[in-house]
Amino acid sequence: MTNSNNSNMDLWNSLSITDPKKVKPITGKSYKGSSPQPYWLVQRATETFGPCGLGWGIEIVQQGFQQCNAETMMHYATVRVWYMQDGKKCSVEHMGGTMAMYKSSAGKMVYDEDAPKKSVTDAMVKALSFIGFAGDIFSGIWDDWKYQEMAAAHYNGQNQQAAPQPQNQNNQQQNQGQQPQQQKPIAQRYNDALNAIKNAKNPQTL
Question: 59-106 pLDDT, tens per residue?
């Protein structure tokens, strides 16, 4: 993401490029934008630090409901993301929030039973972004379509390198240029064997 030689940016630079296939538009908000798929970030964190719970993990520091008015209630959560880096345990905290109860534009009351999970996920994504995950999205450079093309090429190149080569293709490459040997008719093979016996000078050949 940057050509800086600052070693403090090494981890950030290794995480900041987002796969365009793992990006979704933000919905249900008063603003527009893009957001990385949360479970893809979980996979990326596992690839980087190790299994969740061993090399990295999340802890809910605080959560609760906040009554805004008679018709609106928010759920909030503070999440700590920890990870192992150079043998040390590091951590980042961030908050997330979700509307748990509100009145829709049609005048109907809406109750979101998944609000706590959404708040925790929101906080986790934001905390991971402070380490560098999806840094291109949160820094704003994702909005440039030329950058998105570069990100797509980056991941397409990785996928091609990681893709296993079909076994039959390997066999074709190994056998390329070799013509299959035609088997002689049985009568000719019999005569060849008789001639070999007749002309053999070493008894051990028989």
Answer: 999 999 999 999 999 999 999 999 999 999 999 999 999 999 999 989
DSSP string, 114-146: THHHHHHHHHHHHHHHHHTTTHHHHTTGGG-HH
DSSP label of 110 = E
Contact indicator for 122, 100 with CB cutoff of 8 Å: no
For 145, the token pair is: 């379509």
Matching residue, tokens 């590091």: 90
Residue type, 16: S
| Residue 172, phi-psi category: left (phi > 0), alpha (psi -120 to 50), beta (remainder) | alpha
Closest listed residue to residue 128, CA positions, set 84, 81, 78: 81
CB 87 within 8 A of CB 49: no
Nearest Cα to Cα of residue 49 among 75, 103, 11, 105: 11
Alpha-carbon distance of 36 to 11, in angstroms, equals 18
CA 168, CA 174: separation in Å to the nearest integer?
A: 10
